[in-house]
């Protein structure tokens, strides 16, 4: 009987649950449903001012309380989440695309192309991230479009470094050499054969970078260089509540907890993707 159980256990395929990935996806799906369903489920307009209910603490009607202008905090937190999540994803996607293409070209062609890209990356890498972003937005003016531009011009170097290192190894592999011998164009080799086999580390990094981007966007908005009022945004909400932190803690604290929640969701998602896509030894 014991031998039969052993054979059955050996025949049964092993299933390893990717707990971080499942937890991150669950948290992210819940967050998206809450944010995009809020306009249909909540009876409050995040922009409506009502001084008669200003600074109400969390209660049965206003679950997250109200701010100094009588606006519902829950409605504003969820509306701000839509804005911040949209901006963060675009601010990661654009540098990801640009950096991946530039890094792949540098690693594949080598020579002068690699020297120029590496020199540009080293120059930009020498400056602190916030210094470059604030300089660009300060010059062009605060707006969502300039946020996209600033992050694209600064963040692409991280993805370029990652992809370049992977492509330097991949270009010497047999499948790339075979593609060259068959006369395929450089563009086809890079886009069809090289990038799909080297992009995984950049994808994992992109998930982690979403967390840092959300923090950067809220920090810039807190300083007045990101999203502009009256648009709801987590950084703006924290800045609005700093003068009421002792008698109306919920104005700043609850948007801050929303940032923490989003950060945990994307961190777990990144860890899960790393485990899922990591080459099995």
Summarize the structure.
Helices cover 73% and strands 0% of the residues. By secondary structure, it is mainly α.
Considering the chains and any ligands shown, give keywords for the structure:
281 residues; mainly alpha; 0% strand
Tell me, briefly, the overall form: elongated
Number of helical regions = 11
Report the sheet-strand fraction. under 5%
Q: What series of H and E elements makes up the topology?
A: HHHHHHHHHHH
Task: Kindly state the percentage of residues in helix.
Answer: over 70%
Main beta-sheet annotation? none
* C-alpha Rg (nearest Å): 24 Å
Distance between the termini: 34 Å
Structural class: mainly alpha
Overall mean confidence score, pLDDT? 89
By DSSP, the count of extended strands is 0
Low-confidence parts lasting 5 or more residues at pLDDT below 50? 4-15
Structure description:
- The protein contains 11 helices and no strands.
- The protein has 281 residues and is mostly helical.
- The chain is 73% helix and 0% strand.
